Amino acid sequence: MNDIGETQKDAAQIKDRYHHGDLREALIEATASLVEERGAENFSLADACRCAGVSTAAPYRHFRDKEEILEEIAARGFDALTQRSMAAVQEHGSGTLAGMTAMGRTYVAFAVEEQALFRLMFGQRPALKAAELVEDSGHECFDHVISEVGRYCERNGIEGDAREIAVQLWTFVHGAASLIIDQDYEKVAPDVNIEQMIITATERLLSR
Question: Do 93 and 186 share a domain, yes or no?
Fold first, then answer.
């Protein structure tokens, strides 16, 4: 199916959800679709209403404005990243180098696969970042990283501050993810092996 067909199908599903009484979820889904399609800055709340097939007054039954819907989407993004990361760790072994590396690869893969959402989660929207819902989900996501680092250090007899090491690991994978989605590697290092780089950097940062 082409992009137009997919868009029409998505819109129909969102409207169907609304007509079954789930207005709040229909608005979230419609807004998330527009974030993915256009970016968070390039549509209005009225556009989201049209996508959901509801009146422009409908959102105010559940949200104060578009920003609050974006907060919900960003928070769900952190929740999804947490779930995917923890699943990858469990698959490869909690407290192991393979598990830690898998967590880093998952972070980068999430950014590449969900670019618009990733930009929303980490973009230049101070009010959104400061929202309690987003902060809580973001901190919970990072707390899992700290816990895994602590588990790895304990299991392997490594001394060090788990939070400090977690920040270093996050700094690396976030930087790598940003360079990939901004296509900067293609300009200066088109042959870079991202997979191997993540493995090498993770091992070095954990070998303290």
Answer: yes
